[in-house]
Amino acid sequence: MNALRNKVQLIGHLGNDPEIKTFDGGKKLANFTLATNESYKNDKGEKVEETQWHRLIAWGKTADIIEKFVTKGKEIAIEGKLTHRSYDDKNGEKRYVTEVVVTEVLLLGK
C-alpha cells in the first residue's frame, strides 16, 4: 500500500507555456498550470462544466520533456505527488503554495 500514498494522477490541458528555469550545473525546473474539466447535471437538468486549475512543477529529465514537447493548450496526463510549502513574499507576508511535483508525463492528443 505504500505505492498509493501521496499519489496524484491528472489529465488536462496546459493553461500557458511552461516556464523553464535552468540552475547552475544544468538542472532544470518546469513550472506550469493544468486545467481539468468535469461536467455534471444540476437539479434543473442543465449541464454544468467545472474547471479546476492545478499548479505543477517538474525537475530534471521530466522538465526536459516538458520543455521540448509541451505547449499551451496541449493535453497531457501526469503522475506525481502533492506538496505544500510556504514562503515570505517581497512585502514580508507569508504565502502558502500547494503544487504537484510531476514524476511522469504522458503526451496525449494530436
TrEMBL record:
Domain of life, source organism: Bacteria
Biological process annotations from GO: DNA replication
CDD domains, A to Z: SSB_OBF
Alphabetical keyword list: DNA-binding
Pfam families: SSB (PF00436)
Repeat is among the record's keywords: no
Keyword DNA-binding tagged: yes
GO cellular component, one term: nucleoid
Single GO molecular function: single-stranded DNA binding
Subunit structure: Homotetramer.
Protein name, as recorded: Single-stranded DNA-binding protein
Organism of derivation: Flavobacterium frigoris
